[in-house]
Design goal:
Blueprint (H helix, E strand, L loop, with lengths): L1 H5 L5 H9 L20 E4 L2 E3 L2 H11 L7 E5 L5 H7 L4 E6 L2 H13 L6 E5 L12 E6 L8 H4 L2 E11 L6 E9 L2 E10 L10
Parallel strand pairs: 3-4, 3-6, 4-5, 6-7
Antiparallel strand pairs: 1-2, 7-8, 8-9
């Protein structure tokens, strides 16, 4: 948490959430000793757990105006970002295309007693979860080539959409989209590097 503060994270809710969620629970045992370094690590299936600064930055951008009641998360991964959001009292609907990752994440949610705030689904994240929308906020933990229209349609008005955008992992940017009174505004939050948003399920 001190390191995140040094790197510019200031929101007390975000810092408290990071402090509350034990990151080592979301890592493979070979990386547990490094869990509280500000680094990304592989979690299997060609995926990674984001570095804590990225999780904190995305969460801070998501709750900038207020803490939303509902969030659609695309890309559950190990469940760390999901747990951080749920620890803020947010109802999280999370979609993961890799069944192995979702089956590993769910017991972690139960262990942390967050399972009542988290609903998860094994499906193609490009489709979102329309029957539970519209959502106060949407967050992608994978990079889309461009903003995904079916997801934008599931965003409430007003609403906030956080997404890495770009096909080249070295040239992606993190964007914050705000929808208000039917008007879409976009803000560049800086360079990031994420695995790509892919279609289908595994």
């Amino acid at each position: 948490v001190a390191l995140l503060q040094e790197k510019g994270i200031t929101d007390k809710h975000v810092l408290d959430a990071i402090k509350k969620i034990p990151r080592h629970l979301f890592l493979n045992s070979s990386f547990e000793d490094y869990a509280y370094q500000d680094k990304a690590f592989p979690i299997g299936a060609g995926q990674t757990i984001s570095q804590p600064w990225v999780v904190a930055k995305m969460t801070e951008a998501l709750i900038e105006n207020k803490i939303p009641k509902t969030v659609l998360e695309i890309g559950t991964g190990p469940g760390y970002q999901t747990a951080v959001l749920a620890s803020l009292g947010i109802q999280v609907f999370t979609v993961e295309r890799i069944d192995e990752l979702l089956r590993t994440a769910r017991p972690r949610f139960r262990q942390l007693k967050l399972n009542e705030l988290i609903r998860s689904k094994h499906d193609d994240g490009n489709l979102g979860w329309a029957e539970n929308g519209p959502f106060d906020a949407i967050l992608l933990t994978c990079a889309a080539p461009a903003l995904v229209d079916p997801l934008l349609m599931q965003l409430a008005d007003p609403g906030v959409f956080i997404s890495p955008v770009g096909t080249d992992a070295n040239k992606q940017i993190l964007v914050r989209i705000e929808k208000r009174d039917g008007v879409i505004s976009e803000h560049d939050l800086g360079s990031v590097s994420f695995v790509p948003l892919l279609p289908g399920v595994m």
